[in-house]
Each structure stands twice: as C-alpha cells, then as structure tokens.
Amino acid sequence: MDIEVSFFGTLRELAGRQQVISMTEGAQLTDLIERLAREYGAEFRQEVNCIEKLRILINGQEYELLDNVQTQLKDGDIVVFLSLIAGG
Amino acid sequence: MGGYKNRILRVNLTDRTFNEETPSSDLIHDYIGGRGFGAKLLYDDLKPGIDPLGEKNELILLNGPLAGTNAQSFGRWMAIFKSPLTGTYYKSCGGGHWAAELKFAGFDAIIIEGMADAPVYLWVHDGEYQLKDATYLWGLDCDDTHTLIREELRDPRIRIVCIGPAGEHIVNFAGIFTDRRSASRGGGGAVMGAKKLKAIAVRGHGRVELADQEAFRLVVRQQVGAFKASSTFESFSRQGTQAMVELTSGTLGIYPTKNFREGVLPHWEKIEGAEYDKLRVRKTACTACMVHCGNITKIGEGRFSGAWSEGPEYESMWAFTGPIATADIGLTVAADRLCDRLGLDTISAASVIGFAYELYERGIIADKETDGLKLRYGDGEPFLKLINQIAYRQGFGDILAEGVRAAARHIGKGAEQYAIHVKGLEPPGYDPRGAKAQGLNLLTANTGADHCSGYAPQELFGTSVPRKVNRFAIKGKGELTKWNQDIQTMTDTGILCHFTVSQRMITPELYGRLLSAATGIKDFTDSTYLWLVGERIFNLERMFNIREGFGRKDDVFPRRLTDEPLPTGGSAGQVFEAEILLADYYKARGWDTETGIPTAAKLNELGLDFTMK
Fold first, then answer.
1. Whole-angstrom Cα distance, residue B471 to residue B529?
2. Do B355 and B385 contact (CB within 8 A), yes or no?
3. Which positions in chain B have a beta carbon within 8 angstroms of at least one beta carbon in chain A?
4. ipTM over 0.90
5. φ, ψ at B31 (rounded to 5°)
6. Cα-flanking dihedrals φ and ψ of residue A16, to 5°?
C-alpha cells in the first residue's frame, strides 16, 4: 500500500517536502517512523524520538487520538510530520 | 502596593480638563488590571445606546500591573471602547514599548472622554500632562506622526500611540498604532479620530515599585526557565507566526480563501515559513520579552523590491493572500506596510476587499461601482489602490470603509449573504468549519469574530492542556471554548502576551505568583481565584453587550459556514454545527440557552449582581 508522507519544519531539511512510501499491508505508524528513521539517519531518528516537539497527523487527525503509534495505516493515507509551531 | 502606579488620568477633550483617580482596592482585587480595569470602567461610565463615534463614548488605554518590570512578555497595552464596527464592547491589544513607558510616566490608565473641537495630542511625562495642538499633524501617516512628535518634544525615546489618515477619516476599522505595532481591531482608531485626538505621547523615568523584590526576582527567574524549557520557544523565537501557512493551508485546510469559499490557498508553498525565512533581515521584540517573535521582512527582488515591513504576522499574511486568492509575498509585505502607515486593521481591510472581489465575480457590482477597478481573483493590483481609497474614504473605498456588514447593506442586491462577519467583525485566518472550538470562540467572543479572545491551540497546534482534542469533534467544545476564553481573559489582566498563553509557556499558577510578588496581594497566588476573575470579566463584557441589546440572535455565523461544506483540503466536507455547539457553550457558561443571557445565579456567583439592576 502507498502512504503519502509530508514533512514540515526541521524534518523537511532531512527528508524533503513530500514522498510516497510503499508499505506492506498491516503496517502501523510505528513501522513508518522506523522505516524513515532507517532511511534518513541518526539526526532524523533524534528528531523523531523527541516526540514532544513533534506533531504527527494522519489524514488530518492527531495520532494520539487514534491508536497512537500503533495506528493501523491503510492505502492512500496522508501522514504529516510537523515540528511544533506557534502562532495566532 | 507594588506594580500599580495607583493613578488613572481622565481627560475630557470637550472642555480640555484633567482629573486624576485612584483605582479602588475593590477594583484592584476584583479585576486585577488591564482588560479587567477597562471592562469595569467602561461598563460603569457608558450609558447604553450611545453613539460609538459621539462625545459620550470613551477610549480607555491601559497597561497592566507587571508592565515596566522585568517579568517577561508583559509589555502590552490595551485599548477599550464601544466599537463603531460592531456596536459592542471592544478590547484591542497592542505590543511594542508604550505600555511600560506609560507606567514609567506614572499611570496605570488614561481615559479619554468628549471630543476636541480641533486636532490635539496628549503629552504625558513624568506625572504631568497637557493637550497640545495637532493641527500640523493632521493628515500625516503613522510613521511621520511619530517622527514629528519626537522632533517637536526633542526626545527620540518618547513612545507614542497614534492614528493615521484612516482614523482621521473615521474608517470603522481604523486602528491605533505604535512604532509599527498596533491595537488594530474593532475601530479604536475611528473612535480616536472622531475625538480629533491624533496621538498620546508618553515619557517617564519613574521606577515600578515591587511588594517583595526578592520573591519577584525568584519568580521571574522561574518564568525565564519555563519559557526556555517550552517546546516551541526556540522555533517561535526564530520564526514568530510566519510558519503558520503550511499548517493552516497545507495541512488543516482551514485557510479561508475567496471569502471563505475554500480552505486551501492555491500555491500556498510560495508564502510558507521557509520563504519568509529567506526575507528576514532583523528580529524585534516588545519591552522585556525574551521571545522576540517580531520580524523585519524585506523584499529583495521583483516588482516590490525594497518593500519592507515589521511582520507580517500570520493574520496579515493570510489577509493579503486568502481573500483574493494570490500567493505573492511582495504584495503582502507592501500591503502590510501600507496599512501600518495609513492606520488600518489588516484583517478587516483585506476581508472587505475580498468580499468586493466576490461581488464583482458574481456581477452584483461592476466597473461602475468600483470606479473601473477590475476585481479578479489572483490579481492583487486593485488591492493596494483600494486600501488607499478606504483609508481616505475616496470613491468605492468610502463604502468599504464601513466594514463588511454595513457595506453589504449599502450595496444591497443580495450582497448581504456574502458578508462574512460575526456582530460586524470580519473573522481572521481560520475557517471555523475545520476547528470547532476555534470557531465557537469566533461565534461567541464579546468582540465579534475575534481570535484574540479564546484562541484554541489544542485544535491548531495540537497542545495537550487541558487535553488533546479532535478538531472536528463537537462534544466538549463548549467547555473547552469557555476554558480558552477565561484563561485569555485572566491573563489579559496582566497584560500578558497571547502567544505565551496559547503555547502554555506559562501556567496560571506562575502568572499568579508573578502578580502576587509584584502587588503583595495574596489572593492572586490562588489560581482558582484567577480563573474566577477571568470568568467575571468575560461575563461583565457579555452584560455590557446584553445591555446594548445583543443576545443569542447575534451569536450567528453566515450560512456559508454552517451550510456549505469545505470543498477540498484537510477539512473537506466539514460544516460548522452552530446550533449544537452554541447550546453546549451556553450550558458550560451557565447562560440561558434561549436568550444567551447569563443567569442570575451565574451573575451572583461572579459578583456581578449589579449588572441586573
């Protein structure tokens, strides 16, 4: 299945703006994170591990409100990784 | 008592008299300061039904008890008045350095009454005050007004709040400006212009006394530590609000586009944070603020080469793009600077122009009405012209200067259904359909569709205090909106910067300890008490509006937001479920669900029984 992944903030400098990643059926958010961390190296892993500074949305929803990192992904899902920002 | 100067200056412009008042101990205890003082003073002083642009309206300018200290992010001031745009109570907040300077000059607040018969400005310095002739300043923009007053008084360190041509021409959404920052929403500049008050210049050398200097020093140290430890401190210090577009347009799909018809701006990538990063030439900060979120942005090439502005902040980034569907940073920066010089609120100015673009597209207005300007989406060319026309009330600009609600009535021919506002105030850059608590605040704020009333960072930024929420969910959003509005109101007594509140960089407990160490008032350390004060002030403002005839009938969104689903993007398919959300909110507030009026029990609980007389 194909997952569309977008990055904003610091992660974009490491992984680019947007890409489509093929995952095996049944993959969870944690598998996607692990896959990306392996691909983009230690700095990416460090950023992702600092989870309180990171916001992940799956189809526009906070991952904590779904099944956390165990959220089941499906074909066509849009996953967005954002550095925490502020504004108003 | 520390923190306060215990002096309020009352100036009557009609007979050019001055009076000094001392804030009572009850006022201080029950309302703390800032927005609390302003709400109570305005409620007590104004009779219902008065003309906002007449002699009987007041303009109250205030600092807070922590202004002028080294507590962080309290360098803000507030303008409180009855709004010519909405007819409601209004409070508008500005940054910069005026608030602390007013404190150094010896005052907690200035109340302006009456109307001058010729242009004047007020000069307040080290406890003294006088009205000075402003005839020679009338007609000048905000920048030049600052320059000439400083030259006349021979002191470059004088701090000034003033109006530009828009305020002089009584544009309903003219703001009050200080060194490129402003309290711009709601038409405070029009109130000032109607009073023929061009500016208030302040300068002082006084110290701010503290009740417990050592305790205060320790709490400020804790505050500095809390700011530094905040997860967003670093990024917000670097970018300020300029990293928002990728979130609101690119991710959440709530970037109002084409007069709230869509939630995603075409080509939004051209104006995202990374693009603004390339144009940032300097950082700026308000008094005693380690966050320094302000940016000086300068355009390096293209048609707008050399254009610069302080900002633009997110709301202005949105205002100069979404309403007319352009993604042009050059135009945005030039328009932002133009509004600052002319003294216009960017949100309302751009929204009313965006409204005109839709009317033009639909054929409700044509070249005859627009004096030949062709208002076509994607074309920003007429935009700058209309901003000028609005500020000077020339041609079609004279109609738009009334604001969306009144302009729609004037134009007729069905224009009213495309007028996007709540109580006459044009909403900021968040579509309520994709963020229900954010929307519910816009629907119920005492100042119309005002994001500076109860911002919902839980939905926008995913913050987890008081809890993580689903931005589309309806359940619990009444209670959450009350929570957001009350914490905002509570910290507006300080007057603490909204950004630090929405990011939860500071807790009510820490805020209370700062207040208490400065003032010596023990009750301020009790956060339960602070929440009560926040709720009290919010309800008092509501009662001001009830007294003016507002109620549930005015807590209304245009049908576009309640009936038309967002077509694309991260909030596609969403509408705003106003009836259910509003009922939930009234219940959480303890207000009558039929009328939207606070119940007698609620008013008694909050010590507001005097509003029932």
1. 29
2. no
3. 231-232, 235-236, 239-241, 243-244, 246-247, 250-253, 273-274, 314-315, 451-452, 455, 457, 460-462, 464, 468-471, 498-499, 502-503, 570-571
4. no
5. -130, -5
6. 85, 180
Residue B354's identity, in one-letter code, is G
Instruction: Provide the pLDDT for residue B565.
Output: 98
Rounded-to-integer distance, Cα A33 and Cα A36, Å? 5
What does the block give as tokens for B22? 């001392």
CA-based nearest residue to A8, from B240, B248, B457, B434: B248
- How far from each other are the two terminal CA atoms of chain B, in whole angstroms? 33
Contacts of A81 (CB under 8 A, 6+ apart): A5, A6, A7, A8, A11, A48, A54, A55, A56
Cα B78 to Cα B81, B492, B495, distances in angstroms? 10, 9, 8
pTM over 0.90: yes
Interface size A-B, in CB pairs within 8 Å, comes to 80
Q: CB neighbours of B592 closer than 8 A, spacing ≥ 6?
A: B586, B598, B599
Which chain B residues are Cβ-neighbours of A76 within 8 angstroms?
none
| Residue B303 vs residues B199, B296, B328, B330, B376: alpha-carbon distances, Å | 34, 19, 11, 8, 19
Find where tokens 């009444």 sit: B478
Residue A28 DSSP symbol: B
Cβ–Cβ under 8 Å, residues A83 and A9: yes
Contact B62, B108 (CB under 8 A): yes
Residue B202 near residue B125 (C-beta atoms within 8 A): yes
pLDDT grade for B109, boundaries at 50, 70 and 90: very high
Q: Report d(CA B189, CA B257) in Å as an integer.
A: 27
Q: How far is B365 from chain A (nearest CA, A)?
A: 33
Residues B595-609, mean pLDDT to the nearest whole number: 98
Contact B446, B422 (CB under 8 A): no
If you measure CA to CA, which chain A residue comes closest to B274?
A9
